[in-house]
């Protein structure tokens, strides 16, 4: 599971956050302040270390999704 959160104009909170879970355990975290994924389990740390392409994929997907969510928020602002 992935949980996404997009904010706008909220101080001290990243504009965009992604939290990844497997079987209810947090495996990864990404936010727009750091701009890079953080593995939260040992097996995820190993995967990202052993397979740099997975880390690159995860980073690219996070950036892409961040842009999509920003577009959604901008579109909603124009309508309301």
TrEMBL record:
Key words of the record: Glycoprotein
InterPro entries attached to this UniProt entry: MHC_I-like_Ag-recog_sf, MHC_I/II-like_Ag-recog
Signal peptide: none
Protein name per UniProt: MHC class IA antigen
Top-level taxonomy: Eukaryota, Metazoa, Chordata, Craniata, Vertebrata
């Amino acid at each position: 599971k992935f949980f996404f959160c997009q904010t706008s104009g909220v101080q001290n909170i990243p504009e965009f956050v992604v939290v990844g879970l497997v079987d209810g355990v947090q495996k990864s975290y990404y936010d727009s302040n750091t701009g890079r994924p953080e593995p939260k389990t040992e097996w995820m740390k190993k995967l990202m270390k052993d397979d740099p392409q997975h880390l690159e994929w995860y980073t690219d997907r996070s950036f892409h999704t961040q842009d999509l969510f920003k577009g959604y928020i901008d579109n909603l602002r124009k309508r309301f």
